[in-house]
Design brief:
This protein is α+β, with helices and mostly antiparallel strands. The protein is built from 15 helices and 20 strands. It binds pyridoxal-5'-phosphate (PLP). The site of pyridoxal-5'-phosphate has 15 residues, from helix 5.
């Protein structure tokens, strides 16, 4: 069964029939668009850039090939139901949150959540209760939430309607998901998982448990990030019991475009087949490359690429070795500087960097040559760019401000004024401010801005990092409640 691709196969058949099209998109197989684009993209891709005409089914009410493709995906990902998203994992996360909680209902979330979780909290009117993730002061990153913190927050909020977790973090670290799921289920609380970086977990025993394997109720699982489908395509996996699949389908439909891209949908179908049939073998090979990269990077004086040795607590319970996080601070350089050197001198682009680290992902698309290129570049940087390591800067993680008002009430409040960021301490903010990537909030609507938040934002803007959120793109002014 898993070697079939019902949706992709149907699209190719349809394109081969070469029907005369009187429906959108206007480019009609590429003929109605400038050659400079159609020739670059190619006729095959344009021939399946189609729309929800009857033979091709409809994501909003799947009954044909999309339904079949989703059912195969559910079996592959170990879910009862899988829903395709062409609105990224953000769309899957928003669907997940908005189908679980409504106005005034409590949802327990780690502070280091992606902005899509917080957007969903605003749209739904839910009340977030933040949980503290474990912070690693050496590497300067946040990990999972410890089991005891989850237990404490569940005890304090017995009326919580959902618990959201991240599996794994951007940096590839998973908490003890199974124990947390069991704890939440004892209290009848459904567990929603942001699995943007966990699509491979269902397919290899040397990777952490997937959300579905751990018994979670929903998981927004990004196939495009690590599973090989096209950018913006993702899935929402659902387990029946505490969640109504019919309601999930309705919410997904409310949040999705009616003009769903069949290129993206078809790529989900093919990526699922690849993962189900060849995933284990491909992951084994990719793990070998990643182990080789980690070992060689750790042999370079001044660099540290963490691995399983950091797994000590319930918040650092399992690790995805395909995430290569290189701590560069002992070279006297910041991660941002190393990112720029890699770009300018070596034509290498990394996934992300911060004050201390660069993050690289190793995937099926890598080869020994790409690994060698990265390792050689890092060896050269360690030799040629090394500076005296001055006093080690304190690892900064933004403090968690007080939530004075529901995020939705603050966001939609009309009684606001624009003031300089520098004067915002003590005021309730009406907008988000976050660094993207990874898109984790520094402040969100309804929170009381602290001096520490302002310093953190100013430092990031000064370093030229992608701080986003406020209406003012220069982040000099912010909107606060009067
Ligand atoms: C942890 C996490 N969750 C969710 C997302 C959102 O995924 P997407 O970009 O597919 O919308 C990201 C993207 O960076 C992420 O890192």
């Amino acid at each position: 069964m898993q070697n079939q691709t019902p949706l992709f196969t149907k699209l190719v058949e349809h394109a081969n029939r070469n029907p005369i099209q009187f429906h959108i998109p206007a480019h009609k197989k590429g003929f109605g668009m400038p050659n400079e684009f159609s020739e670059f993209i190619g006729p095959n891709a344009l021939s399946i850039d189609l729309i929800n005409i009857a033979p091709l089914d409809d994501l909003h009410s799947p009954k044909g090939v999309i339904k079949e493709a989703q059912e195969l995906a559910a079996r592959a990902y170990g879910a009862d139901h899988t829903y395709f998203s062409v609105h990224g994992t953000s769309g899957a996360i928003m669907t997940m949150v908005m189908s679980a909680v409504g106005p005034g209902e409590k949802i327990l979330v780690p502070r280091n959540v992606h902005k899509s979780v917080l957007s969903a909290i605003i749209f739904s009117g839910a009340h977030p209760v933040f949980m503290h993730p474990e912070i690693d002061p050496e590497i300067g990153i946040a990990h999972g939430v410890p089991l005891d913190e989850v237990r404490k927050v569940l005890d304090e909020h017995p009326d919580a309607k959902a618990l959201l977790l991240i599996n794994p973090t951007y940096f590839g670290v998973s908490a003890d998901l199974k124990s947390i799921v069991d704890l939440a289920h004892e209290r009848g609380v459904p567990v929603l998982v942001d699995e943007a970086h966990g699509v491979l977990f269902s397919f290899h025993e040397d990777l952490p448990l997937s959300a579905m394997q751990a018994g979670a109720d929903m998981a927004a699982t990004s196939v495009h990030k690590l599973g090989g489908s096209m950018t913006q395509s993702s899935v929402l996996n659902v387990r029946e019991g505490l969640i109504s699949p019919e309601h999930v389908q309705s919410v997904l439909s409310m949040l999705h475009t009616t003009s769903t891209s069949y290129l993206l949908l078809a790529s989900l179908d093919v990526a699922r087949k690849n993962l189900a049939i060849h995933g284990h073998e491909l992951i084994s090979k990719t793990l070998e490359l990643a182990h080789d990269a980690r070992r060689r990077i750790n042999a370079i004086d001044g660099l540290y690429c963490f691995g399983e040795e950091i797994l000590k607590t319930s918040a650092t319970f399992a690790h995805d070795p395909l995430k290569i996080n290189v701590t560069v601070s002992n070279l006297g350089l910041t991660g941002w500087e190393v990112e720029k050197i890699l770009r300018n001198d070596f034509n290498i682009e990394v996934e992300m960097s911060d004050l201390y680290n660069i993050l690289c992902i190793i995937t099926f698309g890598d080869t020994q040559e790409t690994i060698d290129a990265l390792v050689h570049a890092l060896e050269a940087i360690a030799k040629d760019y090394r500076r005296e390591v001055l006093e080690r800067k304190q690892v900064k993680y933004p403090s968690m401000p007080l939530l004075a008002l529901s995020p939705r009430d603050a966001f939609y409040n009309k009684q606001t004024e624009i003031i300089p960021l520098a004067e915002a301490a003590g005021r309730i903010i009406a907008e988000f401010i976050m660094v993207y990537p990874p898109g984790i909030p520094i402040v969100m609507p309804g929170e009381v801005v602290t001096h520490d938040n302002i310093d953190y934002i100013v430092e990031h803007v000064k370093e030229g990092l992608p701080v986003q959120g406020p209406d003012d793109p220069n982040i000099e002014f912010v909107k606060v409640l009067k």
